[in-house]
Structure formats: C-alpha cells, structure tokens
Amino acid sequence: MKRILTTCGYCGCGCNFYVNVKDDQVIGVSPKPNHPVSKGQLCVKGWQGHSFVNHPDRLTSPLIKQSDGTFKESTWEEALSYIAKSFKKIISKKGSDAISVFSSARCTNEENYLLVKFARSILKTSNIDHCARL
Ligand code: SF4
C-alpha cells in the first residue's frame, strides 16, 4: 500500500491526510497526525469523500449537450471554446447581467478570488454567489 500526503478537497479548511492506495485504487484515508489545521482529525466528508475517485460513473472528460438533448464527449479545448462562444452570444443578445457565476466551498480562497475577477472584469457582471452562503 502507498500513502500519499495531500490536502482534503471538500472544503476550504485545509485538513491534511494520507490517501491510502493499493493496486492503483484509493482504499481509504488516514489523517496526518499533528497537522496544524486538522490535528490528526477529519470530519465525515474527509473520512468518506473519496469513493468518487475510482467510481465507474465518474466523468473523465467534458460533455457538450447537443440540440437533441444528448451529450457528446469532447476535449477540454472544445468545451472551453464552446463556453466562450456561448458567453459571447448571451452577452451580445441579453447583456452581461444575463450571466451569473456560482462558486463552491470546495474552491480555495485564491480560486474564488480569480472567479470574482473573471466575473467582474471579463464577463462584466456582479451576479456572483457561493454555496457556503446558505
Ligand atoms: S476533513 Fe472536513 S473540515 Fe477538513 S477540509 Fe475536509 S471537508 Fe473540510
């Protein structure tokens, strides 16, 4: 079994744990003792939130919805180009306030800062919200 030290990705607290890997499969986590944030403990999400890693239903590439409602697998380049074109189309037809941006508690402060900058400077909207506000 390999143990890989990492930071939990479930919220912005920054707890540290070892991911326990056997035969290229994640089989569990072990909290890092004496870590200044987690102090050898984890919440239930930190303990249990790893089953998605090897789940067969996990998406491993972007999907673009087609006009008939089906989804077509695409590359990241195709997906990001599609998103950029769609943003431009919506803004030209309805204005910047037709777009809103919704962030996540799973992002770091730095990622949330970048998203706010992207929304206000590039998309020109102040419609920004965050799931941790609930
Ligand atoms: S273990 Fe829990 S509190 Fe710690 S970072 Fe993960 S989700 Fe947040």
UniProtKB/TrEMBL annotation:
Pfam families: Molybdop_Fe4S4, Molybdopterin. GO terms for biological process: respiratory electron transport chain. PROSITE patterns: 4FE4S_MOW_BIS_MGD. SUPFAM superfamilies: Formate dehydrogenase/DMSO reductase, domains 1-3. Keywords: 4Fe-4S, Iron, Iron-sulfur, Metal-binding, Oxidoreductase. One of its GO terms (molecular function) is 4 iron, 4 sulfur cluster binding. One of its GO terms (cellular component) is membrane. Residues 1-57 form the 4Fe-4S Mo/W bis-MGD-type domain. This is Molybdopterin-dependent oxidoreductase.
